Amino acid sequence: MSLTTTPAPATGGVGPLLRRWRERRRVSQLDLALTADSSARHISYIENGRSRPSQEMVLKLAEHLDVPLRERNALLLAAGYAPVFRESSYHDPDDPGMAAVRAALEGVLRGHEPCPAVVLDAGHDVLAANSGMAALLEGIPGRLLQPPLNLIRIALHPQGLAPRIVNLGQVRRHLLERVERHLSIWDSEPLRRLYAEVSGYPGPEGDDHAEDPAQTHPSVAAVALPVRLRTAHGELAFISTIATFNTPLDVAVSELAIEHFLPADPATADIVRRKFPVTRT
Questions:
Q1: What is the mean pLDDT of residues 108-132?
Q2: Average pLDDT, integer, range 217-230
Q3: pLDDT at residue 160 above 90?
Q4: Quick check: 8 pLDDT over 80?
Q5: CA pair distance 206, 29, nearest whole angstrom
Q6: pLDDT of residue 185
Q7: Nearest 5 degrees, angle CA 257-CA 280-CA 272?
Q8: What is the CATH number of domain 14-78?
Q9: DSSP letter at 144?
Q10: Which of 13, 157, 170, 241 has the smallest number of Cβ neighbours within 10 A?
């Protein structure tokens, strides 16, 4: 899934786009004006097309509305200005900046081994993974592992990880809500297609009542949702963290995330340490 192309500017100009972002963020014209050191009247004039904002004002409003970098470029184009944020490709071999980013992320992936970790783009496509993640995906049909491998799809697909997930109802609800949150930020056609696809996969709705995870993993289930997997090594439980780049200046970098899977109990930590491979360099 690729989100690498800046959307074409709307024919109605920048005003309707800014109004849509303001309404999406549930911010009033007055509140936006106060944070952007402007006036509610000026914000109204911009949204209605009666006033053309400066490039500085477009960027200031976009920042206060927490608009993604890709969409900030679209706002600038709609206002008649050139984009200011570069749009690179993660796998571009001729881009020294992205080469440095890849090297840093690959070091993080290796450093997290033997625990699983992946680098994701804005559409949850896997851009890189470590040996621990490969171990989790052992036995998945090869056609599902063909690039672009999508983490949400492989988790919920009936021939993917879904049959192995003990608490599938909880995990399914969490992952669908995760895609919904991303849609509130990017609202892209690829994400909408992904949501329509994975929400249609068979699976339990809501919580799993067959077994209370708080009884099997009491120290973790009270504070974070563990993903509990049946594997050839026994049942494993992971919680995950997601990290992003701080103050990115590149669209692709702003959309990158690295997800680390951490053992949720001592038994999982022991199995991962003894059974999962580690990349040798």
A1: 97
A2: 79
A3: yes
A4: no
A5: 37
A6: 84
A7: 65
A8: 1.10.260.40
A9: G
A10: 241
Type of residue found at 196: A
Cis omega (within 30 of 0) for bond into 218: no
CA distance 115 to 278: 9
Go through the chain and tell me how many residues it has. 281
Listed as own residue / partner, the contacts of 96-99 with beta carbons closer than 8 Å and 24 or more positions apart are 97/250, 98/250, 98/252, 98/253
Query: For the domain bounded by 96-275, which CATH number is listed?
Result: 3.30.450
| Amino acid present at 188 | S
- Residue 256 φ then ψ, to 5°: -80, 145
Q: Kindly report the average pLDDT of the chain as a whole number.
A: 91
- pLDDT digits 0-9 by tens, 65-77: 999 999 999 999 9
Q: What does the domain layout of the chain look like in residue ranges?
A: 14-78, 96-275
How many C-beta atoms surround the C-beta of residue 116 within 10 A?
25
CA dihedral 257, 263, 269, 271 (to 10 degrees): -90
Contact 74, 187 (CB under 8 A): no
CA-to-CA separations, 222 to 178, 183, 196, 214, 262, in angstroms, rounded:
20, 28, 31, 7, 16
Q: CA nearest 262: which of 238, 236, 235, 230?
A: 238
As a whole number of angstroms, the distance between CA 163 and CA 203 comes to: 9
Share of residues in the chain with pLDDT > 90 (%): 85
Whole-number pLDDT of residue 229: 97
Query: Average of pLDDT values for 191-210?
Result: 84
Quote the pLDDT of residue 167. Answer: 96
Peptide bond into 114 cis (omega under 30): yes
Which residue is associated with the tokens 């303001």?
22
β-sheet bridge partners, residue 120: 126, 257
Which H or E element spans position 230? strand 227-231
